[in-house]
Write a structure and sequence with these properties.
The protein has 492 residues and is an alpha+beta fold. Helix 2 packs parallel to helix 3. 48% of the residues are buried. The structure holds 2-acetamido-2-deoxy-beta-D-glucopyranose (NAG) (4 copies).
Amino acid sequence: MAVGKVHLVCFFVLTVIQYVKGDYIAAVVEYQPIILSSVNETVEQNLAQYVWYIEKAKESYVQIIVFPEYGLTGIVNDTTGYAIQIPNVGNDTDFENYWLQKLSNAARGNGIYVVTNLLEKVIDESNKTLYYSTNLVFDKNGKIVAKYRKINLSSEPQLTPGNPDQNQTTFITDFGITFGVFSSQDIFFSNPSKTILSKNVTDVVYPTSWSSFLPYFHSLTTQSGYAIANRINLLAAGLDIPEVGIGGSGIWGADGTAFAYYISGNAGSKLLIATVKNTPDMRVLGEGTKLRGFENLDNNVANHLDTYNASRFFDYDKYSFKTLNISRLNVSKEVCHKGFCCQFSVNVSYAPVNSEEVYRIMAYTGPIGILGSKKTHKICSLIGCATSDISTCGKHNVGLTTKFKRISVNTSISSDSYSFYRPISLTTNLVPVFNSTFNFVIANHARKVVYLNDQEPSDVVAFGIMETSSAVSNTFNIVFFTCIYVFHRLFL
Ligand SMILES: *[C@@H]1O[C@H](CO)[C@@H](O)[C@H](O)[C@H]1NC(C)=O
Ligand SMILES: *[C@@H]1O[C@H](CO)[C@@H](O)[C@H](O)[C@H]1NC(C)=O
Ligand SMILES: *[C@@H]1O[C@H](CO)[C@@H](O)[C@H](O)[C@H]1NC(C)=O
Ligand SMILES: *[C@@H]1O[C@H](CO)[C@@H](O)[C@H](O)[C@H]1NC(C)=O
């Protein structure tokens, strides 16, 4: 009898343990690649830096470290010399390629999972050479445990999009977390950024070389928006070229917590380390769950923002706007564009010091150039403007002095576009508007999404909701990266 009880208790305890995810310590590296005259020297130097960061991370008991896209090579037009053949997931720890060997050794030597991006070369059946942007994950024994070829390319004419049905893109760590892998623009496309979530993934590693476009496509806005909307922990490592608006990294929690983030106009690399807190699997909590996004103050950097030279993508000719009279303090208003409507309720604590300052509300449905020109997307947003001139809206390098009591935005989104929407928020410090809640309810076959902040937000540049249509796309777009190549050529 007593033995039976013990068994029962043990069984119960073991079952519970299975369902309690542990906390773990993660690192992401915002990385400024070193560019030298030869391919070998460039990659060797960057590899040496990577190894240094891996060792440094080990000193802080980091269990997984993520490096950005294009970190080992810099953004290169001609991938030929940089691309290497990469084996599939397997037990080997001996690699023909010296670079892979070095990464594997560093993972094994330090006992850390290492996530990195490389240019991959594949000789196909017809003896043709194909190039991919590939993320690789080494486990702490130096084996490759995941491999992902980027599906949604930017203007990367030499690269081939990865197969839409890849099956080595998730991995389970010895600390009990199932991770998914993708990169950069993928975060705006349902395959893989949504589809991967059907594979029991609770955390995502995300090497990126994101080129920020203000006000709606800023790196940190995009990262935190994805984490919050999908209830996923996201480890985002960004390439660092702030003079062209590339940069912004973070460790984002499924409940909206910013465990760590980094945004700076000062070019340079930065190691971010944070404990990713055990959250219950947020995705099973069901509709209507509130997520409060908040900032963990110890670990965060936003500085030298004047020289963070983000581009703008603000097609104001195409959007519908209304101006809020914020000296009325409490305003509820709706704005519609082609039948798509957004409701805003805004309460102001005190009106702007600068009498020129204006806040507008906007709605838009239609294509968004930087996401490819074909699909229809939707945006609702409150937007801060330095003056009544609409071209001054949505800039970060202006003073906005209005202090709000509460901002709420809501809209209805057809429930077939399942969950593929996210909050968008930005302050003049180029960070999201923290302490906001993001929530949805299903009513009358529509999904009503609410984004709310009642914690007296200030410095608000943008606050809203974006829906991106959920279809696979391999669209090459024009804006992303073209300017980067130019600057790269000029300055690096
Ligand atoms: C690449 O560079 C490293 C040092 O930077 C050197 O030791 C190695 O021999 C070089 N390899 C090739 C193939 O040139
Ligand atoms: C493949 O191409 C290489 C050169 O690009 C050539 O040396 C080799 O013979 C070719 N192999 C086949 C099977 O055609
Ligand atoms: C804004 O509201 C204030 C207070 O209600 C009012 O005095 C002012 O005329 C309004 N301004 C505009 C442009 O409607
Ligand atoms: C905010 O403004 C709305 C009207 O637009 C009003 O109904 C509501 O009570 C106000 N809330 C607060 C907290 O002031």
